[in-house]
TrEMBL record:
Cofactors, names only: pyridoxal 5'-phosphate
Annotated segments matching region Disordered: 381-412
Protein name: PLP-dependent transferase
Keyword Kinase: no
GO biological processes: biotin biosynthetic process
Length: 412
């Protein structure tokens, strides 16, 4: 237990909380729970396949719930190791999260850089005879699709590095497919499956809370690893297991995936991604630089007002801007739900408006969003605003011919 004492001169706990909140208010960074109007257009959630509003998903889930015998427990009643297990859960074999790492040392490598991974591994091998002779294990932990930038990790290149520099086979991959599940790979099975690397992965984590319209996650691993997690993963041991309605929702999503019902939304999503990418490239002529920041202070160096950062085929787009809250507010006023993502969620200087596409979005909605952004840019070109127009676009254009796996920042 932690205790704190309050004297007359010290602010009370509530006053401290209020003061912390007030600081955020002043910095315009106070978070609030919001309820979206039903007419708003979702360009923000992780519901990539729009399953959460799919009539097919709803009908199937309700049928599963209805088919439960009378008095079948809807709640789990405890962790899976105690009262929370069931034949239904065993059949789905869903595990909530995991706390896998008992690593003695963790070493970061540069984002999506096989060269950096190799340099880090080479240094560790040189420093540790155990890693060299294969008696000490190395886990390489990556996301397949990164949640903020939406870029796809170069998994094939990572595997090549690990197998080459750790020939004893003591390099193991743990891949989080949270944002790839449902979106990439055959039947939405993820990037690893798309690349045919499943036999090279030690653990794959697929979450159900994004494209699969439920919550929780599954760990795909070998039976020994599964038994190890049941014994050592604190979240499995101590967390109340999912109840029947959650399991039924996951089962519904599984069934739709395995029956091919999600192939069409998966393809629709990809076509909308290509469309938005091309439409954003049409803003190429509107390059502005900004001399004042969001609070009206001089930026020092003129900063590009708007740039698109997008990895081919990814449903996540970053509209980079030093004034993301202004841009997000302009979109929100037109009913488009997008979010400004600020530091420290992303590094300083990489603030952006994050746009997520979904299979249920329409071409008209995308047109509306892009025209809203165009209007915002044009308005900022007017003499009243503290921006300067540039006659030529800077840097790279956003091209459809971009090679897969190559990430570029387009200055629009
Ligand atoms: C990479 C990654 N993994 C796992 C999760 C956890 O997903 P959830 O909260 O849906 O369980 C998230 C959440 O955004 C994520 O970005």
């Amino acid at each position: 237990m932690t205790t704190t004492t309050t004297t007359k001169n010290q602010p009370s706990l509530l006053a401290s909380l209020q003061s912390a909140l007030q600081k955020r208010e002043t910095r315009l960074s106070r978070r609030r729970l919001t309820i979206l109007p039903p007419t708003s257009t979702d360009f923000s959630s992780n519901d990539f396949l729009s399953l959460s509003t799919s009539p097919l998903f709803r009908a199937r889930l309700l049928a599963h719930l209805q088919s439960a015998p009378p008095r079948y427990p809807f709640a789990s009643g405890g962790s899976r190791l105690l009262d929370g297990n069931s034949p239904y859960a065993e059949a789905l074999d869903a595990h909530e999260g995991m706390r896998l790492s008992r690593a003695g040392k963790t070493v970061p490598f540069l984002h999506s850089s096989p060269e950096s991974l190799e340099a880090v591994l080479t240094a560790e091998i040189a420093a540790d005879a155990g890693i060299r002779d294969g008696s000490r294990n190395v886990f390489v932990v990556v996301e397949s699709v990164y949640s903020m930038d939406g870029d796809i990790a170069p998994l094939r290149e990572f595997v090549e590095v690990v197998e080459r520099v750790l020939p004893c086979g003591n390099g193991y991959f743990v891949v989080d497919e949270a944002h790839a599940t449902g979106v990439f790979g055959p039947g939405g099975a993820g990037v690893v499956k798309e690349l045919g690397l499943q036999e090279r992965m030690f653990v794959r984590v697929h979450t159900f809370g994004k494209a699969l319209a439920s919550h929780g996650a599954i760990v795909l691993c070998c039976p020994d690893t599964r038994d190890y997690l049941i014994n050592y993963a604190r979240t499995v041991i101590y967390t109340t297991a999912m109840g029947f309605p959650s399991l039924a929702a996951i089962r519904t999503a599984y069934e739709l995936l395995s029956e091919g019902e999600t192939e069409e939304p998966q393809a629709t999503l990809q076509s909308l991604i290509r469309y938005l990418r091309a439409r954003l490239a049409s803003l190429d002529t509107l390059t502005l630089t900004l001399t004042l920041d969001e609070d009206g202070n001089p930026t020092g160096n003129p900063t590009p007002l708007f740039a698109v950062d997008h990895f081919p085929r990814s449903p996540i787009f970053s509209l980079r801007s030093p004034v993301p809250r202004h841009l997000a507010a302009a979109c929100q006023r037109k009913g488009f739900v997008v979010r400004a993502i600020m530091a420290p969620t992303v590094p300083v200087g990489k603030e952006r408006v994050r746009v997520c596409l979904h299979a249920g979005n329409t071409v008209e909605e995308i047109d509306g969003l892009v025209e809203t952004i165009r209007g915002w840019l044009v308005e900022r070109q007017s003499p009243q605003t503290q921006t300067q127009s540039q006659s030529q676009s800077q840097g790279l254009g956003l091209g459809m011919g971009q090679a897969q796996g190559e990430k570029r920042v387009a200055r629009l």
